[in-house]
Amino acid sequence: MRILRNRRQAGEWVSTSVYSTTSSTSCSSSGHSCDSPTEPAFRHVGRHSTGFHVWRVEHLQVVTVPRDQWGTFHDGDSYLLFASSERDQPAGPHTRAREVRGAPLEQHVHVWVGGAAGPDESGAAAYKASELDEALGGRCVLHRELQGFESTRFLAYFKHVGIRVLKGSVSSVGAAEPSASLAALAGGSRLFRVSGRPGRRCPVVTELPSVAWRHFSSGGVFIVSTPHALMLWMGRYAAAAERLQAAQVAAAMRDEGQPRALVLVDEGREVLLPADKFSLMTEALDPRRAALEVHHSPPPSHGAHGLDALDLERAKDRPRVTLYHCADKDDTCMVTEVKSGPLDHSDLSHSDSYIVDRGSVGVWVWLGRLVGERDRVEAMRNAQGFVRKKGYAAHTPITRVTDGCEPAEFRCLFRTWHAAAPVAKSSKTKAKSATTVHTRLDALALRDSPRLAADLRLLDDGSGDARLWRVSRAGLVGVAARRAGRLHSGECYVLHYRYGHPPQHAIFYWLGRTSSGERQATAALWASEKGREVADESGCEAIIVRVLEDREPPSLRAIFKGRLAVLSGEAPPGDDSSSGLPASFLLRVDGSQTYDTRSVQVPRRPSSLRSSSVFVLRSKRAGWFLWCGRSSTGDEREMAKRVATSAGGADLIVVYEGQEKDDFWVALGGPSLAVEEYAVEAKEIEEDSAGHQDTRPARLYACLGASSSAFAVEELPNVSQEELCPDEILILDARDTIFVWIGRNASREARQKATNLAIEYLKTDPASRELDTTIVLLRQGHEPPMFTGFFNSWDPHMWNDYQSFDEVRANLEGRPIPNLSQQSQADLPCIREFEDQDKFPLQLLLDPDISHLPHTVDVFRKELHLTHSDFMSVFGMDYPTFAQLPLWRQHSLKKTAGLF
C-alpha cells in the first residue's frame, strides 16, 4: 500500500516542517537533547516530572488554560493536554507535579480538535504537540482526539467534573475567559445534550446550535437552560446511565449561581406538566410542539440495548488486529502487511516502524527506538493517510507509541509481551504465582494484606472447611474425605469452601479436560444452585469459580494443601469411597508450596520425565519411587513426598536423575535403553521452557449490552473502586484469572449471563486468549481480598451513599426517596421483571395486528413493554401496584387501555 502525503485537512497531524518557528531550532536534529520544552507555555513541564496541563490554541499560539476551566472546551478551538504519571498509574487533574527519578514515567499528549475548528488551529495544535514530545525525549504517547469521539483515557481525566463543549471559539467570543462553572451557562436560553453510558464516568455536556425541538431525539437526554429554570428532558429510549448522569449534571447546574427551578420531563408528558412547570418551559419551548418536532428515533434493535451503531461496529472489530510494516521512500510511505493476529512482541523490530490496525477500534503507530528522524516526524501523518486509504471513518482513533514506552492498552493487544531482559522460566511457571513468598502464610496475613492475596490469587491459607461432590447424571455424589483432591480428567466436580470470620463462601466447579459438554454444563448449573443455597441459608453471596483442568488457581490448590492430583479417565463406578488410585501410575508433581502444588498423571514411560520436575512412581510389583530431576528444588521434592505419602507411599525409594538403577526403569515400564528416549525428550522440553516475564497489569472493563444478545466492552483506564457501578457488570482481567464483578442493581438477564460474558470477552480478545482461563464471579459487597487487592484502596462502605436514577429523581423533585430495601420480597422480583423488558412506544403496542409488533413483545403481557411514564399515564399506578391487583381487575384495565 502506497500512502502519499497530500494537502492538509482539518484535524490533520502535521510535521514540524509545516510551521517555521525559532523555538524549534533550539533542539538538536535528533529531537532528543532538550532538557525542557522551548515553547514558553510549556516551561513548567519537566522531562522527569509528573503533572497535568491543558493549553488552548489561540491565533496559532499556545495559551495556558487555568485549572478552574479544565474540562471546558469550545468546538471552534483546538487544545493540547499533557498527562504524566509513573508507569501504569492513573493521571488527571489531581496529579501533583513532582520530579521522579529511578522509575519509568508514562507521558501522554492529547490533541483535542473541536468539530468546528479550522485546519490552521488543529494543525498548530498538532505541531505544538510534536514540539512538546521532541523536547521531552520523543517518547510520549501521542493521541488525536476528535470532538464526540474522545478516547476513554481522555474522558477518564475528567470523570469527576465531566466535559462541557460550548459553541464557538474563545477568540471569537471575546477577551473574557470562559468560566468552568456550570452556572455560567445560564445566560439566555441554551440547549445542551448530555451524553453518558455504562462504563463512562464522565458525562459530556454539548451545547447545541439553538433551543428548538428539532434538536431533541427519543434516544437522548437534554437540558434546557433559561434564566429562571432548568428543564431536564428525557427521551423514552435514553439509557439508564445517561439519565442518571444527566440528572447529576442538572443538579450541579441548579446548585451553582442563582437559584433556579428544576423541571424533569419525560418524553410524551410535556403537555401534562403542572401549570407552574408548563409556564417555565414555555420560556424557551412550546410543549405542544414536542410531539410534532422531536426526532422520534426507533427503539433500540433487539439485542443492542445501551449500544449505538459505533459500539456495535467496534464490538465486531474487537478481535481484529493486523500488523503492517512502514517504510519511507521518495516522499511516499510504503505499507506492507506482516501478519494478522495474534501478534507477539517479537514481531516488532527496534529498527522499524509499524502500524497496528484494529479497524474502527483504532489505529496504532509503533516506532522502534532505532528508527530515523523522518519516520518519527511523519508517523502520525502516515497513520492518517492509512486511515483514509483503508476507507475508515475520519474519527477513527489514532495513537502513536514508542519502543519501550508502550501504555498498557497497547501491550494488551499482543499475545506475549516481555520485559527488556528475558527471564528464565520453566514450563511449570504458568501454574505458579508471579510472587515468591518466603514467609509463612496464614489466613490473617492474607486478610490484612489484600495486595498479597491478589498477587498470589489466594482466598486464605486453605484452613477452611471443604466439601466435594462429583457430578453424575443422577445428581451430585459426595466424595469421601480420603479421596478429596483426587480428581479424574473425565469427570466434573463441585466444591463448597467455607472460610474466614465471619464466614465467607466460595463455590468451585472443576471441569475435566476429557469430560463431556453435557456434564460440564450440569456442573455449572449445580454450582449456581449451591450458590443460591448458601445465600438462602447464610445471607452471604458466595463467589463462583469456574476452573478447567490444568489451570487450577492457587485458591483451589491451597484447599487441598498441595495434594491436588488429576488422574486420567473417569472415576471407576462406586469408587467415591475408596482410594481411587490405579495399581500402577506415574505422577508429575509441580510446585513448592501448599498453594501452588498440583500433580497430574502422565504416561508411565521414560519419555514423560523432565529435569525440572519431581515424579512419584508406583509399581504394583516394585513399590514406590520418588524421581527428582536435576533442576528440581528441595522444596519441590518435599511437596512431592507429601503427595506420595497422602497416596499411601510409605516406603519411598528416592532416585536422583542420572543415578537410576535398572529396577527403576523396569518399574517405569521399559528397559534401561529407554534412558536415551528420556534424554532426547527432556532436552526438547527444557529448551522450550525459557521465556520472558509478563509485566502487564490488571485491566478493568465495563460490559456494554450485558443484558442483551450483543456484547461489547469499554476499558476503564483506572483500576479504581470508584469505577465499580452498582448498576453494571465489570470485568477485571488479571491475565490468568478473569474476575466478573456483578453490581447489586445489574439486570437479572445480565447476572445470569455473567460466565458467558467472560467467555465472550476471552473469545474476542485480540491477543487470542485461552478459553480455559479461570473465571471468578463475585457480587458487590462480597469481594474477597484476592480481588480487592488489585485496587490501590478499598472502602467497603463506598456504596452506602450511592443513589440510583429513581432515587436521584425523587430527591430532585422533592419526593420521598424510594427504598427498595423496604419493599417486600414478593415485590422485588416484580420490579425487576418490569425493568428488564424491552420498552416500546404506547402507539406501537396499541396496534391490534400482532404481526406488526417486534418479536420481543409478549403479546399477552403488553403492559410489561411500556415505559414507566407511559405505564403511569395509562393505568394511573406503578407496575408493582398493578401486579398486586386480582387478575380479573388487571384484564379489565388492559381491555380499557386497548392492551389486552
UniProtKB/TrEMBL annotation:
GO biological-process terms attached to the record: actin filament severing; actin polymerization or depolymerization; barbed-end actin filament capping
Q: Which GO terms describe its cellular component?
A: actin cytoskeleton; cytoplasm
User: In the UniProt record, does the keyword DNA repair occur?
Assistant: no
Q: Which SUPFAM superfamilies match?
A: Actin depolymerizing proteins (SSF55753), VHP, Villin headpiece domain (SSF47050)
Q: What does the UniProt keyword field contain? A: Actin capping, Actin-binding, Repeat
Looking at the record, the residues that make up the HP domain are 834-900
Q: Which InterPro entries match?
A: ADF-H/Gelsolin-like_dom_sf, Gelsolin-like_dom, Villin/Gelsolin, Villin_headpiece, Villin_headpiece_dom_sf
Alphabetical list of Gene3D superfamilies matching this protein: Severin, Villin headpiece domain
Member of which family? Belongs to the villin/gelsolin family.
Name of this protein = Villin-1-like isoform X1
Q: Specify the species.
A: Frankliniella occidentalis (Western flower thrips)
Q: What does the organism's lineage look like at the top?
A: Eukaryota, Metazoa, Ecdysozoa, Arthropoda, Hexapoda
